[in-house]
């Protein structure tokens, strides 16, 4: 649509899309639903779209993670156990995507996203109160499984990973949506950074348009995180449900379109 537009229009469009994407992503995940199509619309080839988006998203995630951590919403004792598994999973996912077509996961992911969205919508209490009672052997093992599997998924395919992380952390640790979002951001930052390094090594990042969008994603992440921390779980939950179902709807549309 904008592939042949003047450069200034491309930059302005990407900056607006970047701000909105990071704003939503900082609150409940799902920002890629906005940022990836934006890069495609200005004429980026697929691999450059993925690489440049990882560059922008990683910078936005850094801001969100820092602000959540500063507010005490990232659990360091849990993360120091889980993040190595996220790193391993993401590395395995990126290597696997070179061998297997990631589209094989679409039907499974679609069903899971619909389930997560519907369950969160109909269960009025889920994620509304923080019921975390401390770490134990069971929740650490389950957390490590979640970290590795979601790291792998993010490196291999990716859509909806924020929704899965937030939901998984709520169910395993009893977090509310605010605390779950903070810890999910730290895990997502780890998997994003792993993928970013590989894309950068292979020269798949277009910095000329990526940097302006990244600056606005940093701003969007700052505003979104600040609002999430201020308004709490009652504000995050409806956006979380909306983004989960929106990603599922997009995937369903693409499957029928094929």
From TrEMBL:
Organism annotation: Clostridium tetani
Membrane topology of the entry: Multi-pass membrane protein
Protein family according to the UniProt entry: Belongs to the 4-toluene sulfonate uptake permease (TSUP) (TC 2.A.102) family.
Name of the protein in question: Probable membrane transporter protein
Compartmental location: Cell membrane
InterPro entries noted in UniProt: TM_pro_TauE-like, TSUP
Name of one Pfam family that matches: TauE
Positions of transmembrane segments: 81-100, 106-123, 159-178, 205-223, 235-253
Main location: membrane
Keywords: Cell membrane, Membrane, Transmembrane, Transmembrane helix, Transport
GO cellular component: plasma membrane
